[in-house]
Amino acid sequence: MKKWFRKLWRDFGVALRGAGRIFRQPRYVLIFAGFFLIFGTVLSLLNAGTTEIGLLFSSIPLGDKLSILANVVLRIFTNPTVLVLAILQATIFSMLIFVWRAPKLKICRKNDTESAGIGAILTLFGAGCPACGISIVTPLVTTAFSTGAYAAVAVFGAVALILAFVVSLFTFIHLGKDVNNVVKT
Fold first, then answer.
1. pLDDT of 66-103, one tens digit each?
2. 85: nearest Cα among 119, 48, 133
3. Is residue 79 in some structural domain?
4. Which has fewest Cβ within 10 Å: 9, 46, 126, 178?
């Protein structure tokens, strides 16, 4: 078990070097920033409850809607879970785009796409405020369990967030190693 953790830690370092190498190119920094804002905003909106989403689709003036969006974006940096998952997902998608564009890479890209997609979906399933009814899974669990559904959704959300983090971390390590190999050659 100790060897496995040591190898995982070493692979994580290689993945960080690979990510650092692609972020020397400005276009991948811009891709990262775009994905970070998208994931961070969606996760922040899901964690806030239904009020802000309702206000964004209401008939309030555009300036107020922009103010709400600015608050949502600022709130990304105050919630550690949202911040870490948004950074991880944005990095994974930036590396995925790099891997797709790398002509020297001769590996099966299907696994990278699947695991990145699974991590993103789990992140969205785990995010949300079950008590507010804004969690994506709340309607599904409510139909199945009716009583105690919100408690079940809270537990499912926590488990989904942990799984999202683990899947995203392993995807990051796998993609980072691929990126590191491509950039070195």
1. 888 888 888 888 888 888 888 888 888 888 888 777 66
2. 119
3. yes
4. 9
